[in-house]
Amino acid sequence: MIPIPFATKAIRDQARRRVAQRVRAGEPCCFCAAPVDLTVPWPDPWSFVVDHHTPTSHGGHDHGDNQLRPAHKQCNERRGNQPDGTVGRNSGTLG
């Protein structure tokens, strides 16, 4: 059985909080290696988003080896796997 990514909003929010804790501890953006400022509001290009190592649209999930990692919105969009350059529905800010 393939796990469903972020089956509920509560699970998604809990995962974002875990990644945000790592940012507070000093973990940088996984793409540009610059610090992530959790106070920058969405949808600023420098706002915090959670990136899936393997995008959920490509079969990635939130369990096991598919690590969730911090990113800036613009860095994640640049990497984007969508034709229009947008990030997937599971990316976003805290709260």
UniProtKB/TrEMBL annotation:
Residues 46-82 form the HNH domain. Residues 51-66 have a biased composition (Basic and acidic residues). GO terms for molecular function: endonuclease activity; nucleic acid binding; zinc ion binding. It holds the Pfam family HNH. Residues 51-95 are annotated as: Disordered. InterPro entries: HNH. This is HNH domain-containing protein.
